[in-house]
Amino acid sequence: MRNFATATLHACIVIAAAACTSSCATPVDDETSLIVVHPSRSTTETEITTAIQDLISTYPVCVRVPLFRTVDVRPVNLDPAKLKLDEEDAENAFDVMVRLGYMMKAPRPDLGNHVFEFKRTQLGMDAAKLRPGESIPSATLGRGGFCMPAGRKLVQIKNIEYQAEVADSRYLIVDFIHTEDAASVWAQNPDLRRLTGGEHGQVPPGPLVGRVLVSRVWMRDKHPLKGAPDSGALWAPSYDHIHDRWIDIRWGGVTLRPWGLN
User: Fold this and answer.
1) Does residue 45 contact residue 162 with C-beta atoms inside 8 Å?
2) How far apart (Å, rounded) are the C-alpha atoms in residues 184 and 181?
3) How far apart are CA 63 and CA 48, in angstroms?
4) Domain boundary residue among 120, 147, 174?
5) How far apart are alpha carbons 180 and 60 in whole angstroms?
6) For 28-78, how does the pLDDT look when each residue is reduced to its tens digit (9 = 90+)?
7) Secondary structure of residue 184 in the 3-state scheme
8) Which distant-in-sequence residues (6+ apart) come within 8 Å of 189 by Cβ?
9) 191-195, 197-201, 211-215: which is most confident
């Protein structure tokens, strides 16, 4: 269960947001990083539509290759005879990322005929950074891969459920149809798509039915108790009840693919 201070603060925020005031009897703990509340029924479909489009266009789809951990760290030997079973396609993966401008490749003949040094370009460094309020593990990005925006386009809102309860939390649930943006890096580079997989993995190119569990989120310095009652964004955070914390606080409740599709 969430701790008492968090629960109390949540309740206070609901009251503050409803009244659109910046005062509350409960003090704000400086350790509180964000406040999450259930969106009210007055939330407009226009705001919901805009939020869904933002979430599905920025949702991270990740390329993870074990040998990408060597980028910016040490030269890598891509001799097929030296590669492990799960690394056999590594040279093609590196070449794809080099061709797309995420890495620079330099041969190291002093170390062997198949040895190369790879460095991230600025584009590659940007693809491995976290922005404020986003929480894909930095170790995954920094050592094993790159994440790029999914580049999906909203086609239609199918259904909005305002009072949905999931795992002891309330959400605004939206079912929608989406498709690939022809201008996205995925649409223009099929080789890149073949490198994706895992939890934040490949998204098929055609129309799909997706789902988002939406909450209203304030970062600590912008929530109602700090005098900004209208600043809360519609995000899709997930709550980790085991560790009593919010995780994937922007996209955790976004499902782009039908359940069971890998």
Assistant:
1) no
2) 5
3) 29
4) 147
5) 14
6) 444 556 788 888 899 999 999 999 999 999 998 888 788 888 999 999 999
7) coil
8) 96, 100
9) 211-215
Q: Which residues contact 131 (CB under 8 A, 6 or more apart)?
A: none
Residue with tokens 């005098």, as numbered in its chain: 227
The span from the first CA to the last CA of the chain, in angstroms, equals: 32
Residues 72, 192: one domain? no
Does 261 reside within a domain?
no
* Rounded alpha-carbon distances, angstroms, from residue 130 to 50, 127, 171: 22, 8, 25
CA geometry: angle at 34 spanning 215 and 16, to 5°?
A: 70
112 has pLDDT over 80: yes
- Do residues 234 and 195 touch, judged by C-beta distance below 8 A? no
Q: Is 147 exposed, middle or buried (0-12, 13-18, 19+ CB in 10 A)?
A: buried
Angle, alpha carbons 59-65-71 (nearest 5°)? 100
Q: Indicate the residue type of 134.
A: E
> Residue 218 is part of which domain span?
4-59+150-255
Q: Which residue has the tokens 């097929």?
A: 80
Closest CA to 56 of 253, 199, 192: 253
Dig out the tokens for 145 from the structure. 């891969």
User: How far apart, in whole angstroms, are the C-alpha atoms of residue 30 and residue 134?
Assistant: 19
- Write down the residue that tokens 């490949």 correspond to: 202
* Claim to verify: residue 119 and residue 185 sit in the same structural domain: no
Tokens 């206070």 belong to 12
Q: CA dist 60 to 6, 18, 144, 196, Å? A: 29, 33, 15, 11
